[in-house]
Amino acid sequence: MTSYVDSSVLVAIYIPEPTSGRARQQVRASGSVPWSQLHDLEVRNALRLLCGRKVLSTVELAAVLSQLEEDIDARRLLRVEVDWPAAFARAQALSEAHAAKVLSRSLDILHVALAVELRCTRFVSADHRQVRLARLARLRAVEVIP
Fold this sequence. Notes:
The protein has helices at residues 7-14, 20-30, 37-52, 58-73, 84-102, 106-117, 128-136; strands at 3-5, 33-35, 77-79, 122-125, 140-143. By secondary structure, the chain is mainly α. The chain has a single domain (3-143), classed as 5'-nuclease (Rossmann fold, 3-Layer(aba) Sandwich), CATH 3.40.50.1010. The strands form two sheets. The chain has a three-stranded parallel β-sheet with strand order 1-4-5, sandwiched between helices. Strands 2-3 form a two-stranded parallel sheet. Helix 7 links the parallel strand 4 (122-125) and strand 5 (140-143). The two termini are 25 Å apart.
């Protein structure tokens, strides 16, 4: 497993967005994608927010969540164990070194830290600041922009 895919890219796989085509292409090229507890919370929450905002109906939400479960069961999204204290320590170090110049948000920093802790070499995101931070963390970063 060498590619870490940010939650925003994963949401674009399930919900049509301008970045969806490129997101699907990058995820297919990645093989199995790490699926952490952070991904689980962020992706499911983003989908529920879309339902609350009436972008998805409750029936559509159920269908998307079912597809998500199928991808987890098929190990396309591969559950990973995370050493959370190490990930947060790495995130603190990345924040200290780069947040003021990159203007990274804490969860974006945590995703980059997770990628490093999971020994991924490639980072896929739809956020240019997160991509910049990933590059500073010596990851090969791919920005998914239409």
